[in-house]
Amino acid sequence: MKKQQLRLTVLCLLLAVCSQFPAQAGVIIAINHTKWAINRFSVDDTPGIDIIGPYQGGGGGCCYSVPAKWKPGMTVRVDWETGEASMKGFPGYADYEKYLAWVKKMDAYTRQHSQVVPVPDYTGQRTCGITVHFLPCDQVKVTT
């Protein structure tokens, strides 16, 4: 009898603990609506993996979960780096000095960004990860 009570207690504890975890884990997807490359990005320190070219999509970082229930005022922090997307003017590697000058020029276009953005209400919707939309003027928006 005591073993059955112990098993039942452990089962109840496991169910209680598991019910506190976020909804389904999914990937971090990104859509770049700008002329700049997104060299790297993360959502609440979870990396999105891919470099995303201008007007393209990507991402694939695993595993990001939003809480099971949406609450007013929910936000996420998006960190990202933008840079020049083209290889225009690439001199090759033969002339190392020209190559270094080109790298310096490309690095001058690189910018770091960070923004806290609201998470839209997803009550009654199936969620599986998060999508980050990189918008012009260094703005971001997220959807679930």
TrEMBL record:
UniProtKB keywords: Signal
Any one Pfam family match given in the protein's UniProt record, by short name: DUF3304
Signal peptide segment: 1-25
Record-linked InterPro entries: DUF3304 (IPR021733)
Protein known as: DUF3304 domain-containing protein
